[in-house]
Amino acid sequence: MSSNNHGTCGTCDYFGDGIEQQQLIQIRINPESAPEAFSACAAPRNAEIHLSVGPRAGCDAWKPAA
Question: What confidence tens digit (pLDDT) does each residue in 24-62 have?
């Protein structure tokens, strides 16, 4: 797990499915703002196992959100 904002799931392009757009924007700015928000991870290697992650989690499949 990563403790910084760069490389955390909340700032990853694969994060955000099922999260309301305004809340997702706030999470992108500050992953600490909604630690209770969970989303399915859409990274190709994680999608098949239906992995749900929080905004402060992290992995090496991180892709920066646009």
Answer: 999 999 999 999 999 999 999 888 899 999 999 999 999
Beta strands in the chain, from DSSP E residues, in sequence order:
39-40, 52-53
Mention every residue, 6+ apart, whose C-beta is less than 8 A from residue 36: 54
Residue 42 to residue 23: CA distance in whole angstroms: 18
Q: Are the C-beta atoms of residues 1 and 57 closer than 8 Å to each other? A: yes
Let me know: does 2 contact 31? Beta carbons within 8 Å: no
Residue ranges of domains in the chain: 9-53
With beta carbons less than 8 A apart as the criterion, state whether 7 and 28 touch: no
